[in-house]
Specification:
About 40% of the residues lie in helices and about 25% in strands. It is an alpha+beta fold. The protein folds into three domains: about 80 residues, Orthogonal Bundle (Arc Repressor Mutant, subunit A), CATH 1.10.10.10; about 100 residues, D-Maltodextrin-Binding Protein, domain 2 (3-Layer(aba) Sandwich); about 100 residues, 3-Layer(aba) Sandwich (D-Maltodextrin-Binding Protein, domain 2), CATH 3.40.190.290. Strand 10 and strand 11 form a beta hairpin.
């Protein structure tokens, strides 16, 4: 069992030294464990580089199976100890950077005050991850889940707002429909998947139609674009959970309020994704329920 935990730690950390810090073992012991495992399997599991290691093709297959096996053993141990009734153990969560920063801190504080035996590791990334490979229990993501191979639960609806600073609105030509945006300076999010598109529809029965907007500022950081909009540089389209405080303060004002906006050609929602076997864990079930209750599934608190 120990050697498999060492293997998983090295695969996740990407180096013997980093894994040794996680495991509180000397790097030489970590290296010896891996060498012994490779010898017993008759397969090379890692490519060695000067300061890092990378899984071989065989290593990647072995890692996926071993990681799931260790989780199954952890779940069985949890049930045997009765912690299905008293949640405990380590809970690893992945979420988008801005959403995690703005909306998870207070939730996690409240959750851990109630369940004192749960230790949480929160990893914030805007890139999509494989929770099985990364050893993540719950992934929070925004969008459509029709093509997901993971189990998922909706934790909140999402609304988008088209908005700009009063300074920009006062100086701009009247905007009565989305196609008029081509005459304006739009501040556009551009991440690892490319630039975001802007979609609009006049009512819930209509289909979303995309508008090709342009502007003088693109960024993979939403906060940069929001700050630029507040400064009067242009128009942004972002989810309300990101900009609600600016709308409430009047630093940003909504535009085209009779139109429904989105960054995809369908309504967006906020989901919690998790591998199927994680739902057997009481800490995962309790956390999923806590999120739904905290945010407000149908009308989240930032829509108030």
């Amino acid at each position: 069992m120990n050697v498999l935990k060492v293997f998983v730690a090295v695969a996740q950390a990407g180096s013997f030294v980093a894994a040794s810090r996680v495991l509180d073992l000397p790097p030489s012991s970590v290296s010896r464990y891996i060498a012994g495992l490779e010898k017993s399997l008759g397969q090379r599991l890692f490519y060695r580089h000067t300061r890092a290691v990378k899984l071989t093709e065989v290593g990647e297959i072995y890692f996926a199976e071993v990681r799931e096996a260790l989780i199954s053993i952890e779940l069985a141990t949890e049930l045997a100890k009765g912690s299905a009734l008293v949640p405990q153990g380590n809970l690893k969560i992945n979420a988008p950077v801005s959403f995690g920063r703005l909306h998870l801190t207070k939730l996690l504080h409240k959750f851990q005050r109630q369940y004192k035996d749960i230790n949480i590791e929160l990893v914030l990334t805007d890139s999509y991850i494989d929770p099985i490979i990364e050893g993540v229990d719950v992934v929070i993501r925004i969008g459509g889940m029709a093509d997901s191979s993971l189990n998922y639960k909706k934790i909140a609806n999402e609304k988008y707002d088209l908005c700009a600073a009063p300074e920009y609105v006062d100086s701009m030509a009247e905007l009565s429909e989305p196609k008029g945006l081509i005459q304006h300076n739009c501040l556009i999010y551009k991440g690892s998947m490319g630039r975001r598109s802007w979609f609009f529809r006049p009512n819930a029965e209509a289909k979303f139609e995309g508008i090709e907007v342009t502007g003088n500022l693109y960024s993979n950081n939403a906060d940069i674009l929001v700050d630029a909009a507040v400064a009067g540089q242009g128009i942004v389209l972002f989810p309300r959970w990101l900009i609600s405080k600016y709308l409430q303060s009047g630093e940003l004002v909504p535009l085209l309020q009779s139109w429904e906006a989105s960054e995809k050609a369908e309504p967006q929602k906020i989901y919690a994704l998790y591998p199927a076997n994680r739902l057997k864990s009481s800490k995962v079930r309790y956390f999923l329920d806590a999120m739904s209750g905290y945010f407000g599934e149908e009308k989240p608190y930032w829509d108030a």
